[in-house]
Amino acid sequence: MAKRIIYQALPRLWGNGRFSDWDEPTFRHLRSLGVDYVWYTGVPRHATGRDFVKGNPGSPYAISDWRDVNPYLADDPDRRMQEFDALVARTHAAGFGVLIDYIPNHVAPDYRGAIRFFDWCDGDWTDTRKNDWSSPRTRAEMLEILRFWASRGVDGFRCDMVELVPPEALKALISAVKADFPDLLFVAEVYGKENYRAYLEDVGFDLLYDKSGLYDTLRAVCCSGASARGITWNWQWLGDMQPRMLNFLENHDEQRLASPEFLGSAAKGYAALACSMLFNTASFMLYFGQEVGEDGVDGADGRTSIFNWSDPPELRDLWRQLHAQGRLDAGENAILARYRSLSAFAKRPAFSEGGTWDLTYCNENAPGFDPERHFAFVRFDAKEAWLVVCNFSDAPASVRLVLPPELRAACPPVPAGAAAEVPPFDAAVLPLTCAGV
Length: 437
Description:
This protein has twelve helices and 18 strands. By secondary structure, the protein is an alpha/beta fold. It folds into two domains: 5-347, TIM Barrel (Alpha-Beta Barrel); 355-431, Sandwich (Immunoglobulin-like), CATH 2.60.40.1180. The protein is globular, with a radius of gyration of 22 Å. It starts with a strand and ends in a 6-residue tail after the last strand.
């Protein structure tokens, strides 16, 4: 499976917060990032203006009507479904697939529809009620909901908290809807690594969040001084599941990379970004504004709020630059340039579909290489090979690496060694040639 890049965004926080704000300047920007799918978060109609709602306008994960969209996203609320259909058509015409949320575990207390639900919620999700999957009526309705959205041109679903739903029910659901729409993409939010293989092979999801794997590993390396060897360990543990992972450094549940609660600076995340985006053929997800260093200051605890109207400042700056209403500052432009550069590598066949060679095992004692704070690998196909060196330390790295005979036999001719100079918290991506070092 080739690497895909998914761009997650809350339409209510982009531009004027309308479907119509997803226009050609926006899509041109997404093409510059190599995006394949746009995940429009918060489209199906959710509860708002009620006493149980968290924040204003409320959570996209407390659905009140599965066959409607949020009126506030439309220029003309009475024509909101037509405006959504137009958004799908524009997105497709621009060259992207459309993902929306599918939330099988719960609905809002004021849900209108055939799903049966209990009078209680999981955890502190007090704006929701737990769905009753023992009910044939619920299972039948869930299938019709997916068919409803697929028939409107939706290309896939990011499936929320699937571990709280009976897996056999999800398996039947995915099988049934793919019988009619075989190309649908199902992305699962799964946290238990022990469940990964079952959700891929038994249940039938196409991609899984690797939150408990690579995300947690990189966060520990960056923030807690954990060994960079953990990247190798996670990769080895995943084995043949690796191509069906979805890597990320941000989403609506996690703290912004540039927030004080995470790294405090987008530039300090370049090593993690290069590793997450380039290390293997796993797909990668960007969260809107990440590419210009959005830091979550408008929200709480380093997160952009999914409960309230908010105005993320870097996201606003990006919108204005794309629409000739303002300009990003020098720092924001530098971050954007770096994201575009790395995403261009990610779309090259050697990175998107090629082989991966972890160099840690043969460079434990290489000059300048610290396996605790550095990580190096090669990506290659039949035509080219690239060296990536990630520096998770606060000091510059000057390394001379061994490229083992086994690697040289597996990919285009490369030298026996390679050198790299890498700034702190950064990464270098270098072509490998026979010129030597």
